[in-house]
């Protein structure tokens, strides 16, 4: 495997994990912009004091117990239909429990009914069946679906969230919460079975054509082995497979469903689309560094498309969980990610999409090291000049703040570039300590003083 295939295998394999942008533990912070006039100097004098006037404390990161301190957050959410909940690391306990806590609030107080995760569409369908009908064993599903880089989701924190969702559905069978996998890095066997079953029942004339187009594609191994084998195919073959799956989508679209068949037809097309999303991702030339940005643009567009499709099809309000660099409104690293999921969703939904970045000052997380081994890393307090250093000087230990309505002194600081921690699946990552303008990246920020590594189950 050459350089760019190795990069893909390390950072994407097997299920569409982030091309991580991770700061080095001792990254040099950027200096704040120099004030050119006394008014500017005054504006930068104490952004933390200005943020403190707008911030609301979070009394706990534990998802159990009272949610009263999240009422200000609920007002910030307003009428948003999709709320992106980020994370500065993929595997820290408090980021995951805060998402559980926020989702519980959104379900109980704001009418949200779906949780979307940076995981394959087929994984989402399998977990959704467990949540709705108790199909399968949760431990087995998580072990089988969260492999490779997706192993970060196989943790006690997400298990607790899924168990809460299942318990909620047991108590509210007529108004359940749902699970969505929005990523396109793998297409499980269940997708092919769903498309084939629809064709056999509603479009038997298409069944033989679909069988031929999908020949050799339905997974017969675990996801990690499947993607490793898929990436070993010559580029020309991968392009030909993508062309075949595109024809399958076109065939299904040729005769839209009507009446009682309309819903089943729409879902079959979406399942076929998810298959095509995977084959298209792997039809890029990963050996050409000029195409990496194109591939990542495709991936973030796919994740946005899948969330938007679910929201529009079901009418559900959705809590969307992913890395800060995906749920952001603008890219943290434009060279690698020309446009990200949050930007696509803002284009589609306008104010109906809300981006919530999650930051931290210090603590620990799990990640792959440069040799591919899973390790627990710890980083110390944020250095002066970084965004987290200022955020951690706000008067509350943990808090949420609406950047859209921050006082003037804070808005000036928020509009300036600052280094942030942005730790992905591998640490250190391929672009250490990016600089971003918080006001252009997120609508809200939840800042935590300290985090600890998540509790991995395998």
What is the structure about, briefly put?
With 458 residues, the protein is an alpha/beta fold. The protein has helices at 3-11, 38-43, 47-54, 71-77, 93-110, 121-133, 138-145, 156-171, 189-202, 207-213, 223-231, 235-253, 261-281, 292-314, 324-327, 341-349, 387-391, 408-414, 438-441; strands spanning 56-57, 82-85, 112-120, 178-183, 317-321, 353-368, 374-379, 399-402, 418-419, 435-436, 444-451.
Task: List the defining traits of the structure above.
458 residues, 9-stranded mixed beta sheet, 19 helices, 14% strand, disordered N terminus
Task: Please give the largest β-sheet.
Answer: 9 strands, mixed
The fraction of residues assigned to DSSP E strands is 5-15%
Mean pLDDT figure:
90
Ends apart, CA distance between termini: 27 Å
Poorly predicted regions: 1-44
Q: How many beta-strand runs?
A: 11
SSE succession: HHHEHEHEHHHEHHHHHHEHHEEHEHEEHE
Number of helical stretches of at least 4 residues: 19
Please tell me what the overall shape is: globular
**Category from helices, strands and their pairing:** alpha/beta
What is the radius of gyration? 22 Å
Layout of strands and helices, then pairs:
Blueprint (H helix, E strand, L loop, with lengths): L2 H9 L26 H6 L3 H8 L1 E2 L13 H7 L4 E4 L7 H18 L1 E9 H13 L4 H8 L10 H16 L6 E6 L5 H14 L4 H7 L9 H9 L3 H19 L7 H21 L10 H23 L2 E5 L2 H4 L13 H9 L3 E16 L5 E6 L7 H5 L7 E4 L5 H7 L3 E2 L15 E2 L1 H4 L2 E8 L7
Parallel strand pairs: 2-5, 2-6, 3-4, 3-5, 6-11
Antiparallel strand pairs: 1-8, 6-7, 8-11, 9-10
């Amino acid at each position: 495997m050459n350089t760019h295939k190795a990069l893909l295998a390390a950072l994407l394999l097997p299920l569409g994990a982030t091309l991580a942008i991770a700061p080095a533990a001792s990254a040099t912070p950027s200096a704040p912009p120099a004030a050119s006039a006394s008014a500017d100097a005054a504006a930068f004098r104490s952004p933390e004091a200005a943020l403190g006037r707008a911030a609301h404390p979070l009394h706990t990161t534990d998802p159990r117990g009272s949610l009263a301190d999240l009422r200000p957050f609920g007002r910030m959410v307003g009428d948003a239909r999709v709320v992106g909940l980020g994370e500065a690391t993929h595997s820290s306990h408090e980021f995951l429990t805060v998402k559980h806590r926020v989702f519980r609030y959104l379900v109980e107080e704001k009418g949200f009914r779906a949780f979307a995760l940076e995981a394959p569409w087929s994984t989402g369908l399998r977990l959704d069946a467990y949540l709705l009908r108790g199909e399968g064993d949760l431990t087995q599903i998580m072990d089988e679906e969260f492999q490779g880089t997706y192993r970060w989701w196989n943790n006690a924190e997400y298990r607790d969230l899924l168990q809460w969702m299942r318990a909620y559905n047991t108590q509210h069978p007529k108004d359940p919460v749902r699970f969505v996998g929005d990523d396109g890095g793998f297409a499980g066997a269940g997708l092919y079975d769903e498309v084939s079953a629809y064709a056999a029942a509603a479009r038997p004339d298409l069944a033989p054509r679909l069988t031929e187009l999908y020949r050799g594609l339905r997974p017969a191994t675990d996801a990690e082995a499947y993607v490793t084998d898929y990436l070993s195919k010559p580029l020309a073959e991968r392009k030909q497979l993508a062309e075949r799956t595109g024809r399958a989508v076109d065939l299904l679209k040729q005769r839209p469903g009507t009446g009682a068949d309309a819903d089943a037809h729409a879902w079959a097309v979406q399942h076929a689309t998810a298959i095509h999303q995977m084959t298209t991702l792997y039809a890029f030339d990963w050996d050409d560094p000029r195409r990496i940005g194109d591939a990542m643009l495709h991936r973030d567009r796919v994740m946005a498309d899948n969330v938007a499709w679910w929201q529009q099809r079901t009418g559900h309000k959705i809590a969307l969980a992913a890395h800060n660099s995906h749920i952001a409104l603008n890219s943290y690293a434009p060279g690698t990610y020309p446009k990200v999921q949050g930007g696509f969703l803002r284009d589609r939904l306008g104010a109906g999409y809300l981006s919530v970045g999650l930051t931290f000052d210090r603590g620990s997380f799990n990640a792959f090291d440069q040799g591919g081994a899973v390790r627990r890393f710890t980083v110390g307090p944020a250095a002066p000049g970084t965004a987290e250093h200022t955020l951690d000087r706000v008067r509350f230990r943990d808090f949420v703040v609406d950047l859209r309505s921050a006082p003037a002194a804070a808005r000036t600081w928020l509009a300036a570039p600052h280094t942030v921690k942005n730790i992905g699946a591998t640490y250190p990552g391929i672009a250490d300590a990016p600089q971003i303008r918080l006001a252009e990246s997120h609508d809200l920020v939840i800042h935590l003083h300290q985090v600890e590594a998540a509790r991995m189950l395998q």
